[in-house]
Design brief:
The structure holds two protein chains of two kinds. Chain A is mainly alpha-helical. Helix content of chain A is 66%, strand content 0%. Chain A contains 17 helices and no strands. In chain A, helix 4 packs antiparallel against helix 8 and helix 8 runs parallel beside helix 10. Chain B contains eight helices and twelve strands. A five-stranded mixed sheet of chain B has the order 3-2-1-5-8, with helices on one face. In chain B, a hairpin with a 5-residue loop joins strand 11 and strand 12. Chain B starts with a helix and ends in a 29-residue tail after the last helix. Classes of the chains: A mainly alpha, B alpha+beta. The complex binds protoporphyrin IX containing FE and copper (II) ion.
Chain lengths: 556, 347
Amino acid sequence: MSATHTIVNLPDQRTATIPKRNYLNNEDGLLSWLFTGDHKRIAILYLISITFFFFIGGAFAGLIRLELLTPQPDLVASDTYNKFFSMHGIVMIFLFLVPSVPATLGNFLIPIMVGAKDLAFPKVNLLSWYLYWIGGLFTMAALVLGGVDTGWTFTTPLSTHYLNTHVVTAATGVFIIGFSSIFTGLNFIVTIHRMRAPGMTWFRMPLFCWSNYAASILMVLGTPVLAITLVLVALERLVGIGVFDPTKGGDPLLFQHLFWFYSHPAVYIMILPGMGVISEVISTFSRKRVFGYTAVAFSSVAIALFGFFVWAHHMFIMGVSNYSALVFSLLTMLVAVPSAIKIFNWAFTLQKGSITFETPMLYAFGFLGLFTIGGMTGVFLGALGMDIHLTETYFIVAHFHFVMVGGMLMAFLAGIHFWWPKMTGRMYPESLSKLAAVTTFIGFNLTFLPQFILGYLGMPRRYHAYPPEFQVLNVLSTAGATVLGVGYMLPLLYLGWSLKYGAIAGNNPWQATGLEWQIQSPPLTENFIETPVVDHEAYDYEWLAHKTAQEVTTVG
Amino acid sequence: MHISPVLWQFLVKWLNASALFPREASTIAPYADALYFFLLLITVVGLTLVGMLIFGFSIRYRKEKHPVAVQVEGSTLLEATWTIIPLALFLIVFVWGALLYFRIYNPPTNAMNIYVVGKQWMWKAEHPGGQHEINALHVPTGRPVQLTMISQDVFHSFSIPDFRVKREVIPGRYSTVWFQATTPGTYHIFCTQYCGTNHSAMIGEVTVLSPDDYDKWTQESTSGMSLAQNGERLFASMGCNACHSGSAAARGPNLAGVYGSKLQLASGSQVLVNDAYLRDAILNPSQHITAGYAPIMPTYQGQISEDGLIDLVEYIKAMQTNYRVQQTLTTSQSNQTAPTTPGTVKP
Ligand code: HEM
Ligand SMILES: [Cu+2]
């Protein structure tokens, strides 16, 4: 049955060594990395880059929280504080969250998961990494030259007429990063459509591919709108074309429509790939097919498509007509349903499984809890009358951190730990990594749960100073952020350590079913020596058991 | 209010005492809080359910207990269940939220109007009687108050958490919000839309007074000129009365009584004359030519501040006859005005 599978080498787990030839040591020297066309190396380049930016964004988060320790504006001046949260937002959204899972794990895994030797356009893939960095440098330049204080939303007419900061530089940065994201999306779509190995039908594809596919649709269709919006902002600022300027007959609300037309779907760009990771991890560590595979697959695509029709829920208090508010609220409730479905599908995947609790699984459990809270609080905001009170307060800050940080970042960390042995050939230290997962979870809740209460009490977001009665909750939140910071530092340290000292992982340390686990770790540059032929479903653990038994007899 | 009185009062009292909950100081607040508690309830129930499933399965099916997984395809029945139940709940929330939204954003017809201009970085309130306040707002209990708001520069957002109301304040257009305060006291006004350097300093205080105290306050703090009277002066000094003189030979339409009417435009369309239309017609006259008149009115773009526009609009509103502005309630000490007649706009 599995005779058609080419197993590159199958060392016994205990005596395993790092394969002599792999994508990491295939060629040497910095230049071989900077000009590589190998999707796996580009994934590593991305991983290093986004980690770098994550800690820059994190440093700003720390500064924000430190300032908010006391109600007085005592640590920094208002303008400086405004630049802090703008930088925090811009860096975290555009330089970390949007590319996080797709550009690192997606880049590394999608070709292997569908049985291809590389992405459809390797050079475009490399180009997109360069664009990411050029955009990143523009953003950093805006910071170094004196900062930008628009918030990550670039709202007009504030950004176009009332700020003396480096708005155009920062917008240019985001504009360029946008193209990097479009190219990544395009590459994934074409690869998944055209380069699947024989037998890899759509419904044998891992859910990770499905969810990245859905996110790619959003990147390709949504990001151009952001690009256009930013060009208009720049033109308005530089030559005063007046599309958003009411004194010239323009409409400031037009900006809001355009911006959220991208930025709402962008939320799904950020979360969908994370959902893919969760499907893989939960399936592997419960050794079960994902419950209702087809529903989970289609719900990703449904979320992506319907995600385009809810943007005005960011504008309920901005004077959209009451009736359009009704429609957008209803649609928002409808997109919440597929997310709810997924949560239950994941939970029921555990049923009758054979569950183990490795680090990726702990992060995935963290994801389930935090994402449920994030999703449910989204329903608060989708409910029209409730949104009036809650929007623009710390409730929003808490909600989106639960979804994006509690959700996406947990998923990202789950994924990094899960595929680390494949990417590097080495294991990380088990107990430290579990400690990190638990620390992150506790720190996260301590940081962001108080913010829901702050929000209902009415504390506005983007406030540098606040009335003294909000202090207790803010102190809690800052304390939590400190714990959370430790939780994020730990993986950086022990994963770095494991590169040299980690135990050798072997090909399939988790006994997972995906094609990526059937090849050597770290993989060869060409992934597969012979194109694999796929004859089983994505999470077919019976096939795996059968195959392993056969190999043991042939090897031994 | 009248939502399950006993339990409700108890809960709210307790929460207020614990400082984890904003005060309920408007008629809307209890309605908003009711929805909030419902949402909290379904969140907690949902979270408990998910938590129980995960912990339950994790204990029951951990590897030591259950070494070999049993493969299951899925289950249409189960999946239908967890599609339909959330959908139903979300639809309830949708309807409830929508009802609340309409309650919050549709002002009653008897609301008294106060203008608010947002600018970097202050709130300027203008009462029809001419009282001006900065970062402060005085309102009486027991009367619906409507705020007609506009921004002079960037987006701001007017929020009173203890009333559970908030509305974006937008450059170039009027937005409104209304509330009816229930409890005397002072409450925060926040600007919640990020508006530049001193965004977090753009805060103020609403002072809710009993109706008697409120009357006292209006008497004491009047500037002697109502908005409409200011508008009348502006009307003369900007030269508006040269054309809009109301006489038969005038080159512009008579504005008396025009507020609230349906106006026939030269383009053939009809418009309802309200505050927003009047503001627009002053700033962009060439786009709103009244049928029967030549397009000769100049634009006043850049020549009148938002405050001035509000004064002019109030004046035009008050112009029931082409004779002169009617006296408003709190300016009785001014001797330049005609005696009160029925049908005047009162503050
Ligand atoms: C220790 C972790 C973190 C803390 C303590 C933190 C704290 C904060 C705070 C207090 C704000 C609100 C600023 C304000 O409204 O004045 C904020 C905004 C934001 N955060 Fe975080 N954050 C953390 C991590 C992250 C991460 C990991 C991401 C994304 C991956 C992220 C994305 C954002 C975004 C997009 C905003 C909006 C910025 C804006 O309002 O323009 N945060 N964060
Ligand atoms: Cu403001």
